[in-house]
Amino acid sequence: METASTTELIDLASLRYDFSSAKMFAQSYLSQDFELLGPELGESDALWLAALTLYGRAFANGLRHRGRANTDGLSTDMQEAHEYFIDTRNKFVAHSVNAFEIGIVFVDLNPRDEAPGMSRIGEVHTSVTRLSREMVERLSVLCAHQVRTLTRRIEVLHQVIGRELLALGEEAVYSLPAFTPPVPDASNPRSART
Length: 194
Hints:
Elements: H1 6-30, H2 45-57, H3 76-93, E1 101-109, E2 118-127, H4 133-168, H5 170-174
Antiparallel strand pairs: 1-2
Helix pairs in contact: 1-2, 1-4, 2-3, 3-4
């Protein structure tokens, strides 16, 4: 069914799903002893990367035009954390222009007492492989805040949509098609969400 407010409700529910998923990934990451791991990227790091990606996606410009996430009510400390996560997502996870990774080229020269020359040219790429426990805890708190905020907004929209349905009248409401669960079509990643 569609009313004037259903598009906004769909957008808000989609945002809440992103934040709920991001919080779940962050909590799974925090449940591990990642401090005991080496600096190499490992399986647990996929969790914080996924959490950060979903968090940032919720604030990106895209199809969600009617329902937007916002940072109203955040403390200065949490607003700074939010901006850090958005920047980290945009500059490190989604793109490669950042201070989180460094690449250099080096040359190994023959010793001075040997024939001049190069024995090897190589390259090194190094990057920050994980966020600290404290930062991921902050990300989880921000996600929980967003889920609570969106749930309140969704509850208000349920009432608004109820009034919109009442305004349609009994005959129109009972003429609406029966509910069928939606089935996403992932065959074309370029197609728009319906």
